[in-house]
TrEMBL record:
Any one Gene Ontology cellular component term annotated for this protein: nucleus
SMART domains registered for this protein in UniProt: BTB, ZnF_TAZ
Domain BTB: 28-97
UniProt keyword annotation of Cell wall biogenesis/degradation present: no
Source superkingdom: Eukaryota
Lineage per the UniProt record: Eukaryota, Viridiplantae, Streptophyta, Embryophyta, Tracheophyta
Natural source organism: Olea europaea subsp. europaea
UniProt name for this protein: BTB POZ and TAZ domain-containing 1-like
């Protein structure tokens, strides 16, 4: 501590008359009383410059009447207070002190308003979270207004709740802080709801991407032809090889063949034909080249929608927007991937 005080004094700025401010601070003028009655001598100007709370304690009227100024920091181990004062002098905190007294330093930094130390303690404690100490650090983070550390504790506790539930910290929490227990359980419920919503959203996006890919394959089959199915004016002797989306394209070709030859399609009794019918309708809702489009029933569906707007309900319009959006996102991601691959190809070439 003496070495830190001397280092700070040597780096102190000069006063207006050319003398060093350090000359006025050679002797400690404040005593910090810790638990057990141990005393840490310090300099009031250094402490006041580092902590506005300590500054108010030093300059309070009650202390001004007394010849000896004392600051009581009780309820914390002496070594933790010593590490706290060391930070006020040097703005540095050793890893060893953070390992041993991180919880105490966080409380002191919050009480005496030392933001830099509080940030260091929040980051250090977050790196040292374990199943055994997560409940204690969670309670401290809430009391010391450390939201980042609080959220990290909640996430760790939520992901390992079955193990944390067996610790002494959780049992103490249940008996003495039911409101915090309720808040933790609410966070876990909301986290599970978020996971379900995310999972459902991914499944929906996957379905929209599959429909978008089916639309591309339908246009490809009806315009260029693929393997065994193609437009009516295509030369059957020219067999098309499998395309890049052959899995989807092959299944769609089988559905088209079934749709053409199915006898139950007229009465609406075939589920497979109904799905094919919906694909034709979905293509018609997306297609913007009606006059040149070669997909069957495209123009007929558009005319039907113009004649009867009721059939084009809100649910169907929402499906069309989702498929169009998924198609746009897919095309953008492919373009981005292509731009990223071009420099690699050029680099390999050279």
């Amino acid at each position: 501590m003496v070495q830190l005080q001397n280092q700070f004094l040597q780096n102190s700025p000069s006063a207006g008359d050319g003398t060093m401010v350090a000359d006025e601070l050679l002797e400690p003028d404040v005593q910090i009383i810790t638990s057990g009655g141990r005393i840490i001598p310090a300099h009031s100007r250094i402490l006041a410059s580092a902590s506005p709370v300590v500054e108010r304690l030093i300059t309070s009227p009650q202390k001004r009447r007394s010849s000896d100024r004392k600051i009581h920091i009780l309820g914390v181990p002496y070594d933790a207070v010593s590490a706290f004062v060391q930070f006020l002098y040097s703005s540095k905190c050793d890893e060893e002190h953070m390992e041993k007294y991180g919880i105490h330093l966080l409380a002191l930094s919050h009480v005496y308003f030392v933001p830099q130390l509080k940030q260091n303690c929040t980051r250090g404690l977050a790196e040292r979270l374990t199943i055994e100490n997560v409940v204690d650090i969670l309670q401290l983070a809430r009391l010391c207004d450390a939201p980042d550390l609080y959220v990290k504790c909640l996430k760790l506790l939520s992901n390992n709740f079955n193990t944390v539930e067996e610790t002494e910290g959780w049992k103490f929490l249940q008996n003495h802080d039911p409101w915090l227990e309720l808040e933790i359980l609410r966070f876990m419920d909301e986290a599970e709801s978020r996971k379900k919503r995310t999972r459902r959203h991914r499944e929906e996006q996957s379905l929209y991407l599959q429909l978008s890919e089916a639309m591309d394959c339908l246009e490809h089959i009806c315009t260029e032809g693929c393997t065994s199915v193609g437009p009516y004016d295509m030369d059957p002797s020219k067999n098309k090889g499998p395309c890049s989306k052959f899995l989807t394209c092959h299944g769609l070709q089988l559905s088209i063949k079934h749709f053409v030859t199915c006898k139950r399609r007229v009465n609406g009794g075939c589920l497979r034909c109904k799905r094919m019918w919906q694909l034709f309708r979905l293509h018609s809702s997306i297609c913007d080249q009606t006059d040149e489009c070669r997909v069957p029933l495209c123009r007929q569906f558009k005319l039907k929608v113009e004649e009867d707007r009721i059939q084009d309900d809100a649910t169907w319009r929402l499906l069309v927007r989702k498929v169009v959006s998924a198609k746009a996102v897919c095309s953008l991601s492919l373009a981005k991937r292509k731009r990223e691959d071009e420099p690699r190809v050029a680099m390999n070439y050279y």
